[in-house]
């Protein structure tokens, strides 16, 4: 039947094939389950209708069976009472009910067979649905792992490329240049400081000499006076 077609199609092989083409496996898996739920609801409706037909035929053939038994008993009572004509009419009516019973029993057996098949297929659908639900988490985990791995691989592919290496080389050269400029600036400052210190030293030495020379002159003057 058409309502069970998806059950035959929804195998793991077909799901994996669809996942290969899906942009978002998680959304696709959830959509598959929603579709299966809708099919199960449709199947449940069909099964319920078939069960109703089965019960209707069962009730009707049981009523006919009761009438056959009743007319048989009535025909016997009529004969016992000596009323053969009434017994004959009862048997004629029994025959009609017997024919109705035979046809209804045949329809009931067919309806029951169909209902049993639909019940079995519905059970199979629900079992398959539960299997898919249990496997969904595993498939989603696998999809997320693959997605993360792909992102990592793409990120890692940029490591060590020529552009990155050249960029590091440029920055290394720039840092060396900055260090060289800083060193040169320090040397110039140190050179300027040395000249100032030397000149300051000259002035200091001349002053000390003058002071010592003045002291010696003072001593010499005292000796001459004595």
Automatic annotation (TrEMBL):
Region: Disordered, residue numbers: 180-208
Q: Any coiled-coil ranges, and where?
A: 69-149
The organism's place on the tree of life at top rank: Bacteria
Record bears the keyword Coiled coil: yes
Task: Name the keywords, alphabetized.
Answer: Coiled coil
Instruction: Identify its protein family.
Output: Belongs to the PspA/Vipp/IM30 family.
What name does the UniProt record give this protein? Answer: Protein LiaH
Q: Which organism is it from?
A: Paenibacillus allorhizoplanae
């Amino acid at each position: 039947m058409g309502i069970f077609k998806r059950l035959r199609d929804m195998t793991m092989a077909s799901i994996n094939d669809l996942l290969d083409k899906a942009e978002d496996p998680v959304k696709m898996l959830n959509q598959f389950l929603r579709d299966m739920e809708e099919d199960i609801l449709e199947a449940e409706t069909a099964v319920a209708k078939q069960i109703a037909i089965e019960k209707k035929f069962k009730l009707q053939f049981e009523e006919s069976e009761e009438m056959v038994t009743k007319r048989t008993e009535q025909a016997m009572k009529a004969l016992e009472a000596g009323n053969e004509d009434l017994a004959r009419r009862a048997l004629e009516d029994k025959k009609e009910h017997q024919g109705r019973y035979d046809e209804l029993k045949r329809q009931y057996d067919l309806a029951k067979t169909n209902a049993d098949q639909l019940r079995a297929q519905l059970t199979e659908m629900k079992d398959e649905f539960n299997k898919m639900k249990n496997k969904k988490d595993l498939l989603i985990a696998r999809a997320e792992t693959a997605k993360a791995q792909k992102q990592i691989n793409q990120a890692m592919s940029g490591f060590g490329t020529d552009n990155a290496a050249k960029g590091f080389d440029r920055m290394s050269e720039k840092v060396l240049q900055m260090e060289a400029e800083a060193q040169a600036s320090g040397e110039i400052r140190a050179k300027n400081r040395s000249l100032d210190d030397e000149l300051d030293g000259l002035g200091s030495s001349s002053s000390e000499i003058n002071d010592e020379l003045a002291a010696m002159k003072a001593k010499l003057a005292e000796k001459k006076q004595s």
